[in-house]
Amino acid sequence: MRIIKAKDYNAMSRMAANIISAQIIMNSKCVLGLATGSTPLGIYQQLIEWYTKGDLDFSEVTTINLDEYRGLGPDNDQSYRYFMNTNLFDHVNIRKEYTYVPNGLEPDRDKACSSYNERIRACGGIDLQLLGLGNNGHIGFNEPEDAFEKETHCVKLSESTILANARFFDNQAEVPREAYTMGIKSIMQARKIVVVVSGEGKAEIVKKAFTGPVTPMVPASVLQLHNDVTLVGDEPALSLLEV
């Protein structure tokens, strides 16, 4: 595992965006696994800036997002499809039909999950997967469990995750209780993984995930077993690691 310590959030965002942009430049037809949430926002802003300057071309890129709230459609401003359109896709020359997000409106859980698994396989797998890190160690919406989930599945969100995401909604009651998420197996099959973390509040879980035992009770700990992981964080988030 490579660990890159940045001075602050902006520097962290630029460093992570550099890794993603290099992937696109080296392979214009690459498949990017993308994440939502507040941490990747600076990365997407940097990628848009470089695209605007003519440094990046997304025209042949395919993207596969980690997750989507069950019950939310693409027009809902809290859906992850809406998030990706607003914060990246609408601002670059990517083909929308080559950007994939789980179908939050599919009522049949098994169908939604199997369809997404097939989509990942049809794309040839993921070249680079971007991940954030939840306060309880979740990646995607893979919550602490007794076993690692293998592929895309429907998960009941933990109270800590619902509380963390409530800031994006008018109130906590509006936060969906379920989500479709890419599974640990799918994430671990990505050829390269980049994890981004920011803020002192993530320091303890970063230490637990990347220096503690590998356990499904800390889902991100499984990343210790991957052969190409880069952790990019600002100084506060990495303050408990020896870098």
Kindly describe this structure.
The protein has one domain (2-129, 151-193, 213-234): 3-Layer(aba) Sandwich (Rossmann fold). It is built from seven helices and ten strands. Helix 1 crosses helix 2. The relative contact order is 0.18. The chain is of the alpha/beta class. The strands form two sheets. The chain has a seven-stranded parallel beta sheet with strand order 1-10-9-6-2-3-5, covered by helices on one side.
Mean pLDDT: 95
Output the strand order for the largest sheet: 1-10-9-6-2-3-5
Radius of gyration using CA atoms only? 17 Å
Number of domains: 1
Shape: globular
Short précis:
This protein has helices at residues 9-26, 41-52, 80-87, 109-122, 159-165, 184-188, 203-211, and strands at residues 2-6, 31-34, 62-65, 67-69, 99-100, 128-131, 153-156, 178-181, 192-197, 229-234. With 243 residues, it is an alpha/beta fold.
What key phrases describe this protein's structure?
alpha/beta, 17% strand, 243 residues, seven-stranded parallel sheet, Rossmann fold, 7 helices, 10 strands, three-stranded antiparallel sheet, 30% helix
